[in-house]
Amino acid sequence: MKLIFSSVVNGCRHGKLIEVGRKGSKSLDIPGCLLYTRTGTAPHLTHDTLSLIEGVPEPVHLTLSTLAEHHEVLEEYKEGIGKFIGMPDSLIYCAQNDPASPCPSGYNTNKTVSVWGGGGRIELTLTKFMAIQQAFKPDWYHCMADGEPLPPGSSRKRINKSVDRTLGFLDECLKVHQNSEVLKDAEIIGVIEGGDILEERLRSARETMKRPVGGFLLDGLQGESMTDDLKLDLISSVTGELPVDKPRLIHGIGKPDEVLECVSRGVDLFEGFFPYQVTEQGKALSFNFKYKVDPEAEEKSLAVPLHQVQDQQLSSTCTSVTHEQCEKNHIFAMLHRNGSGDNDISSKTSDCDGKVKAFSIDLKNEQFRDDFSPLVEGCPCYCCKNHTRAYLYHLLLTNELLAGVLLMIHNLHHYFAFFQSIRNALKDGHLKDLKELIAKQKV
């Protein structure tokens, strides 16, 4: 596995990972994301519906949280999980924990870690952890790690123990890995822990670098247990220590603004769980990532008479705020419309109730009952080309399974296109413009 950079500017890395996978035949663009799965399949989607989505990433993200209780089946199958789940040609990455379902804290020990599946808690010894990897036959997997989210104010002793345990687990995993005929062509990823203490983070990074790992996973930064500034400072410090020729992954980071901040600090790969979280909330991703302004479209938007905006966009639901406030919301939307490609929508979506939704629209809101526009104007995904907001509102209201299918199609398409936009912005030298555009949409 090799990293080839197109550019590295102020810590931002743009390029390709080549010679990836057991046969060394895969490549993937960075920055990028993984295809998030649960029990080996993209949530709500069959392989046929997944094929309708443009830009699906090569790496498939599997988690022991959803698969560990089924590993005996894979041991009997003997041909690896890629073929078992119908993705024999995909790049398989196996992770310990599910980023969309955080594990409770307090269950890891010096000899075991716990994951939580459909049947409850599953305790993994190192022997069992590596037996699962040999049964799954992934292309990448990260070592067993004491990576449970530590609550604010955790003692230095507990954080120190997390680092020591993870380094010990890595050494034991490497012993099995290097003596395994099944895993000899797989890459093992080292896990960097350290909680909110910089010294422990750096110790974890420096010690992990001494081991023969294929890349690095920044763990323990998910959730709201530390401030954004502290989190970003820790990421900057750690990536500044890591070798430039190996990929950096991060666990539990998925929101667009957070992704861009991490890209700016040298992170390469992200878990693609955010579209699933949004789908489960009955929402559609709608944020604008078109950093290049189309002058003609902007001129047309500004040329729309105000009375037309009022007639077309101000609804009778604007009762909790003044008519003037709603006008301002819609004028703001017009001023931030780029009108290009697959994301021709306003930078923010207003419910006309004084609240502005960041990054997505809530299709359970009654305002969409008779809204016959697509989820996102100009979006070329199957859902937006064939269905309306009103139809999705109906499906969600009646608890139809099709709601999850259509939302997942749209949300994955939108999220993958966002990562393509990041790569384009790095190539064009416009990452700052993209960051500013996304920052305007954060509540």
Can you walk me through this structure?
The protein has 443 residues and is of the alpha/beta class. It has 17 helices and 18 strands. The protein has helices at 47-50, 64-67, 71-77, 81-84, 126-136, 156-178, 198-209, 228-241, 256-263, 274-280, 295-303, 306-313, 323-335, 382-386, 389-397, 401-428, 431-440, and strands at residues 2-9, 12-20, 26-30, 32-33, 35-36, 59-63, 91-95, 112-117, 120-125, 140-142, 187-192, 215-218, 248-250, 269-270, 283-285, 349-350, 356-357, 360-362. The strands form five sheets. A nine-stranded parallel β-sheet has the order 4-14-13-12-11-10-7-6-5. Strands 1-2-3 form a three-stranded antiparallel β-sheet. A two-stranded antiparallel sheet has the order 8-9. β8 (112-117) and β9 form a beta hairpin. It starts with a strand and ends with a helix. Mean pLDDT is 86; it is low at 297-356.
| Uncertain residue segments | 297-356
Radius of gyration: 23 Å
Please, what is the average pLDDT?
86
Strand content: 15-25%
Counting DSSP H or I runs of 4 or more residues, the number of helices is 17
Q: Structural class, judged by helices and strands?
A: alpha/beta
Helix content: 25-40%
Our measurement of the CA-to-CA distance between the termini, rounded to an integer number of angstroms, reads 40 Å
Q: Strand sequence of the main sheet, in spatial order?
A: 4-14-13-12-11-10-7-6-5
Q: Characterize the largest beta sheet: strand count, sense, and whether it forms a barrel.
A: 9 strands, parallel
What's the overall geometry?
globular
